[in-house]
Each structure stands twice: as structure tokens, then as C-alpha cells.
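Bench log, entry 3. Co-assembly request; chain sequences pasted below exactly as received.
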Amino acid sequence: MTVEVKNDHIEEIRLLLEGGDEHAVSSFLSGLHASDIGRTLAGLAEEDAVKVFKLLSPELASEAVLEVDERLRKALISSISSEELIEVVDEMETDDAADVISELPIEDARQVLEGIGKEDSLEVQKLLVYPEDTAGGKMQAELVSVREDSTVQQTIEEVRRKSKDIENISNVFVVDGSGRLAGTVALDKLILAGPDVPIKEIAEREPVKVRTDVDQEEVAKIFQKYDLLTLPVVDHDGRLVGRITVDDVVDVIEEEIFEDFYKMAGLNVEERVLDPPSRSIWLRFPWLFVNLGTAFLAASVVKVFQGTIEKLVVLAVLMPIVAGMGGNAATQAITVVVRGLALGELSLKNARRVLAKESLVGLANGLMTGGIAAGIAYIVGIKPAVGLLLFIAMTANLLIAGLSGALIPLVLKWMKVDPAISSSIFVTTCTDIGGFFTFLGLATVFMKAGIL
Amino acid sequence: MTVEVKNDHIEEIRLLLEGGDEHAVSSFLSGLHASDIGRTLAGLAEEDAVKVFKLLSPELASEAVLEVDERLRKALISSISSEELIEVVDEMETDDAADVISELPIEDARQVLEGIGKEDSLEVQKLLVYPEDTAGGKMQAELVSVREDSTVQQTIEEVRRKSKDIENISNVFVVDGSGRLAGTVALDKLILAGPDVPIKEIAEREPVKVRTDVDQEEVAKIFQKYDLLTLPVVDHDGRLVGRITVDDVVDVIEEEIFEDFYKMAGLNVEERVLDPPSRSIWLRFPWLFVNLGTAFLAASVVKVFQGTIEKLVVLAVLMPIVAGMGGNAATQAITVVVRGLALGELSLKNARRVLAKESLVGLANGLMTGGIAAGIAYIVGIKPAVGLLLFIAMTANLLIAGLSGALIPLVLKWMKVDPAISSSIFVTTCTDIGGFFTFLGLATVFMKAGIL
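Structure output for the full assembly:
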């Protein structure tokens, strides 16, 4: 996605801050959408972000603080007094409040929970027990529910009563005497029914629902599968405890996809482009360190054939081509396979078909690019026997690339390890070693046979 | 996202098909959700998929056919008669019908448009003029709108009238005498107002809206920014022509993120893991071909220093480490930068900050991994001078990796080229050439100076 961002106001804010006119900054901010303010905060130096944050109304602050990453959020929150923080948290929906409070030091968390009022505090505390990446962690306590013996009229009154405090009421939940979810009613159905109709009659009796401990990835898949706007969340006894709305799920979907590709590139999913350098250095170092190990492993293969290279140094010139092309083909294979696994288009059941396919694709592209490479080598005056060597080694290495690019994520999946993580490192190690070994090994054989 | 897909039924269906009992297949299918049927169709061999598709009710067929990729959809559609196809398309919402019809050969499209009834046909034809990846292409004509002089009671009656044919009515649109969008009303607001209240009074008067020609990526960003469920679409004169619902947007978001990473890996975004090999071969070949060119370019740098390698063949052993580590560090930098650009966290305004940051990260990790590499080299008995060379070259190359990993996507963005596409190829070319040049070039200098 590369739409030009037209709505960051970093330069304007910076100029106003330099001018020192806090009033001007305040009035400029009050005209912006919270998500733009969030983006602006993320783009400013931390001290400026703090200054701007302090000028926001509690309402805008409560929204903007949710739009920035955890690190900046901590800095912003610690810059305001606990009274101000209580005001800000008070403006939030329970799920967001729980997220923010869970990031606070224990003592601050206690103060805020005391400050936001007993009823809200109880709701938030209930949410705090669920891990953040589960249905329980994503749900909010705000919802409209009625007993199953209610009428349409009574239900409409309940919607009316709750609508001051709740946004996005797109349906009403029906519960039995012990609070167990018995059905859902979309608002349009409610409008259409006569006032005395029992709510049970117009309710969808077997609504899609999830338990609190379901992983957020699965929640996202359920939303996509059933095109839902809201999903009720129940506890182990089937009692309704919250609802998840589609806008929270959109963020989950985005996060999960980025996570896969971040892992493939050896990145920590928490890293952001505007993080301070020291953080990025330490987040990226471990993966580079592991890669250094595999690079030495590949180099040790070259070392074995040092004598061969000594006799024919053009091999050293061409060997990076073989290894590099294998790496590129492997990246293609692995990206397609990891995506297929992520979307559920591929499972272990059709693993064999995909292995065969990727091997064939690797072989075919190996034959073609190997042939072209041999042709170029011939044109630039390299001996035909070396060109032949290049052709065979590239074909073999692209076959290795396709096979390992499909096999390794599938094996990781079968071992119940995330197929995205570390797939790349294993696969490029295969193509590096494969490339050097086939190319230099064959060269040695050719030499012994007197062809080279 | 790696949730186990529990809902594909490929094996069961295959067994039933082998048994030849069409009735059993039909009744098994009728118990499944359309998205599961879609996934099952995609996992079967094409001839089996066709058999299964023919057994579906028009309603299930109309949903399942939207869940498979374009290639399979064409195969399925061409397997049924035009009467059957009309029945299937008749079950679809106008936006989906337009998508399917736009993929048909002209003659078939005309037949279907004639078959689905005059009113629907007109709506679909209006949608057909918009490119698929714009707001116009994503919108559906099904919506509830009332004139601005209506009352709440009249509006509720309009909802009632339309609700048989329209799913997911979450709000009502208000238009003026010439059809221009004048406001929106969420259903819960409608429930709460008295029957005689003029609809104008409870309408949101400046609703978020988009014009038909807005790109789908921007539409997705608007949904995320304002947490919308529905977005009205207007023509150049501000007249209401359709609405986009959040479930269509979720797919766009997913597609756009995958697209970025696909481009980075040199893949065509249309490719799917279960595509036939011939298709994957041809989709992947062009990128591999371009890479072959850059690989030869890098090799030509090695060629320049052939004499140096001849004198000290251990250089050929170590040079892939320098180039490979640069490539890994570059992939990290580029992934972070492309993601930042996609999410709008990074714009050209803070480009300098990111360039400085990535250079510093590259330098620091270069110093660390270079130091470790030199240490390992020393331990395995390589001359200290060669270790020093390795240290300097790795530091320089990781600096190059960070700088080019940030600079190249930013320059592409500045040139209004998609920063994801071809970033990787430029950056790895930089690190390959940079790695070989610094390592072998310095070695040559060291030799002349008598250090090596």
C-alpha cells in the first residue's frame, strides 16, 4: 500500500512549537482527526511529542495515544500526572483501557483503576486477565444484551438506554437466565419486527461465537469467513462476556501478515521505521549473528575446493552467480508457500503436490536461466566446458531452491513451528551450500576427467 | 497467520467422488459454508472441482465461485450452461455480479446481462464501467437511501421495504432532490428517534465519502482511519451511486500487504500456491532473468580482481560471507522501510532521519558482526591481516546495506514508482558489488602495501 499520506502535520506542528504559542498548537490540534494526531506524534522527536500530547483534550488524547506504538505510549503516559491519566483512560472503551492499563507499572495501574469509577474498573479488571492476543484480550465489555423472554419493544428500549455510552451497536445479544448466549439480533431485523414480538422469534439462534481463549488469528479468520461486523465472546460455560468489533480485527489482520514477512526477513515484529537506532541495532543483531554462522558454513564448503579454485580462478568469479540465483529462486518459492499456509490455501494434505510443483518450477527455471548464463559465458569468452558446468550447477541449484523452499516451511509447519520464522535462513543456507558444492564439486570432477 | 485450517474437506469429497454417489456429495456440500466449499474447490484437481461445482445449488455456487481465484472461476463458469450461469449470477450482489461478468467473454456477458432482469442488469452495467481496483469497482449498488425531507417513520419503512434484498444494512443514506449525498444515519440513531422527527435532524451532515475513481488502497485507509462499517460512494457531481462495506475492504487490505512483499520477492501478486507449474514458471522467470543480469554485473567486479584471488585463494572462500551478510542486513532495512511507507508512518519528510538511522544501524551491526567474523577467522587459523580485511569490508558493506536499503525505496517513492517493486534487486546488487569491491579492492591495496 503506497497511498501518499496527505495528513501528517509534522512540519506545521514543529513550526508552531518553535513559535512557542501553545494556544495556536492547541487550536490546530483540535481540528485534526485522532489518527492523524497519532501519526504526527510518532513523527516528532520524543520531547516535542510530549509537549503536543500535553496540549490535547482528554478525549483526543485518549484516542491518539492508542494510535502510537507501545514505546512512545509509555513515554507520553509517563509525562502526564495520574489525575490527567485517569481522565484520559476514562474516555476509552474498556478493551482499550485494559490494554493501556496492562502496560502501566503496578502502582500506577492500581491508581488508575481506582480513579475511573467502580463499574468501569470492574469491567476493565475482568478484561485484564486475558492475554492480549486472544479473543478475551481483543473483546470489549460494552454491548447490548437482553434476556430471551424480552419483547422487541423492551429490546429497543435497552438499545436506547445503552446507546449513549456505546458506539457501533450493530446488533443485540440475547442471553438466557444464567447469562449464556442464546442468540443475536441484527438492528435492521429489530426495526422490522412489531413491538410485541418476542425477541426469541427474530433472533439468529445459532450465532457464530468464540471462547475467550481463542487466538486472535483465528478470530480474524472467523470474521473474514462469515463477513461479520461483531462477534460475541463467551466463557467456558457459554456465558456472554464481551464482543469483538470488526475495526479491531482489521488491525489484527494487518499485524499478522506483516509479522510473517518480518519473520522471514529476520526482523522483530515490534520494530518500527522510526524507532531509535539503538533499538533497531539490538533487535536485528541476533538474526545477523545466526546468519554469520550459516555464512561461515557455506564458506567452509568453498574452502574444501580451494585447490580447484587455485587451478581455475574463473570459478571464483562465477560461483556467486550460482549461489545468488539459487537464493532468489528460493525466496520466490518460500514466499508463495508461506502465503499459501497463512491463507489456508495450502495444508499438509496437499504438501506432496506443492513439493512436486516447486521442484518442477525450480528445474524449469534452472534449465532456462542456466542455459542463458552458459550462453553469456560463451559470449564473454569463457571456455565452453566452464559454461556447461555453469549450466548444470545452476539447474541443480534452482531445483534445490524449489525443493527446499517448499519443503522447509512445510516441515516447520508439521513440527508445529511457525513456518515463516527461520524458513529463509535454512533455505538460503541450502542454496548457498548447494550452489558452491555442485559448482565447485563438478568442476573438480571435470578436472579429474580432463574436461577442464 | 498460521492457524490450522480445520475446514477443508478435500479428502472427504475426493472419496465421495470416487464412490460416484452424486447424491451423497450434494448432501455433504449443502452442510458446508461457502468459503469452505471455495477452499475445497481450489484444492481439488480441476476436473473434480468442475464435478463438485455442478452439484451446488445456485445460491451456494454463487458464493463459492467468488472464493476461488480468477483462473479456476473461469474454468468453473465455462463448465455450466448459460441458463445455469444466469441463475448463479442472479443470486449475487451487484458488485460481485459485475466482477464475474467482467471476466466473461463479451457474448456470454451479454447473455447473462439479458438474463438477470432489467433492473439488476442496469445496476450491474453501471458498475461495469469502473476499474476493479477503484471505489467504483468495489462498491455495490444495494443500499437504502431516502430524500432529505423524509421523516424517521418513512425512513424505517424504506428500510423495511429494502431489507428483503439487502444484507448488512448498517446505515441509511440521505440524498437531496438531485440525488446528491446529504448525510448518513446509523441504524441505532434511527431506532432512538421519534417517528415524526425529520431525518435531516438526526443525520450526520458531513459524512466521510469517496468518489468513484479513488484507489482501493486509499479506500482501505479511510476505513481504517475512521473505523467505518460502510462508506458512501459518489460521482463527480456528488450524487450517491453506491456503498462499500467493511467486509470487502478487509480483503483489499490483505491483498495490498501481500502485494508489497510479493513484489519484493520478485513475484506476481496473482500467483497462488496451487497454480499449475507452467504458470508459476512463466510468472517467476522474468525476475530471475533480471537477477541473472545483476549477478553477472557483480561477477564482473570479482573478475577485475581475479589476479588478487589467484595470489591468495582464501579471499574466494571469504568473499561470499561479506556479500551475503550485506544482503541480509539490506533485506532487514528494506523490509522495515517499505512497511513504514505502506503504513504511512514514514513519508519523504522524515527521509533524512531514516537514512541516518539505517546507516547507523548498518554501521553498528557491521562493526559487531565484522568483529566476530574476524575473531572466527583468527581461530580457524586465517592470517590476522585477512581477518582485519574481513572486518573492514563487512563494516563497510553493512553500512552500504543500511544506506541503500533506506535510500532506494525512498528514491523510488520520490520518483512516484512503487517502492516495493524492484527495491530488493537494486539493493542486493549494491551489497553484492559493494561487498566484492570493498573486500577484494582492499585486499589488492593491502597486497601492494605489503601487509598481505
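Residues 384-414 of chain A form the longest helix (31 residues). Chain A is about 65% helix and 5% strand.
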